[in-house]
Amino acid sequence: MFESLFQDRGLSLDRLRTLAEVSRAGSIVGAAPGDASRQSLFSRQIKELEEFFGVSLAYRAGRKLKLTKEGRELVAVSNEFFVALGDFRRRTKNAACHFIIGSGESLLAWLVAPALSSPELRGQQASLSYRNMRSREVAGALIDMEIDLGILRRDVLPSSVLESREAPAVSYALYVPREMMPEKADFEWLIRNRPVVSLDETTAFYKKLSGNLAGAGLQITSFSGTPSFTCAASMMKSRAFAAILPDLAEIDLDESFVRVEHPLFHALHRDLVIAWNPRLLRVRPGVERFINAFHEAIRKRGA
Prior knowledge:
Blueprint: H1 13-25, H2 28-31, H3 36-53, E1 58-61, E2 64-67, H4 69-92, E3 97-103, H5 105-115, H6 119-122, E4 126-132, H7 135-143, E5 149-153, E6 163-170, E7 172-177, H8 187-193, E8 196-199, H9 204-215, E9 223-226, H10 229-237, E10 242-246, E11 257-260, E12 270-276, H11 279-283, H12 287-302
Parallel strand pairs: 3-4, 3-5, 8-9, 8-10
Antiparallel strand pairs: 1-2, 5-12, 6-12, 7-10, 7-11
Helix pairs in contact: 1-3, 1-4, 5-12
C-alpha cells in the first residue's frame, strides 16, 4: 500500500520536521541561528524533499522563506502526523494527556488560571502548558497544530479553517486606587490629574484607545505604557497609578479600587472564542472531551 513512498530516497521524519521548523521560524537562519552547518543541512533537506515530491516547497522573499501552496500543505500533513504519533507514544507509556493552550497573558492569568480548579478540569487527568501569544499568533499556531486550544478575538478567527465556541467577552474600564480618587471625580478629571498606566504605544489596543480619546476631545496627561495588562495591574497596585484594564482583572482587585466607566470604552469591547483545529479531533482520541470540559470551566468562570 505504501511501497511507492519508499521506492525513492529523500523522505524521512527528520526532513519533514526540518520543513516544519523552518516554516515556523520564517527562514533557515531563524531555524538554526548562528549554526552554519545546520543551516546548510536544513537547506539540503528541503531540496531533497522537493526532489522526492517533484514540486517546489519554498521560495525566498527577501530574508524570509515563504512556503508554496504545496509546502504549506505538506507542513499541515506532517504536523498532523507528528501530533498523532506523539499522542500514541504518551498512551503507550500510560502518560497523562498533554494539551497546549495559547492566549494572551492577561487571559491566561485572569480567565484560564482561575478556571483550572473547576471540577470539569480537575477530572480530566491531563497536563497543561501555556503559550503567551497575540490573537493572530494563536490563530496561526492552531492552523499549524502547534497548540491544541486557543482563546482569541472573534474578529481574527479564520472560521473557514478552525472551529470555535463562545468565551466570555471582555470589557474595559479605568481602575483607580480609592485614595487617589477625590469625591465626585469623573473620568475626564482623573485622566487629566492622575497618572494612568495601560498597554504601551506599540499595541493595537493603545492605538485604538488613543484614537477614541482624541475623537472625544480627551487626552491622558501622564501616561505610562507596559507590555501587558498584568504588568499594568501590578503598577496600579503600587497605589501610584490608575490603570485602564480589562474587567477580568477584577478577580485580583478588592474594594480599595474603584471602577470608572466611560462610553469611549464601549468600542474596545472584545468578543472572545475558544478555538481548535478540527483535524485535531481525528488524531487525538479524547480531545473532544477535554474541549468540552475546558469550555464549560471557562464559561462558568465568566458567568
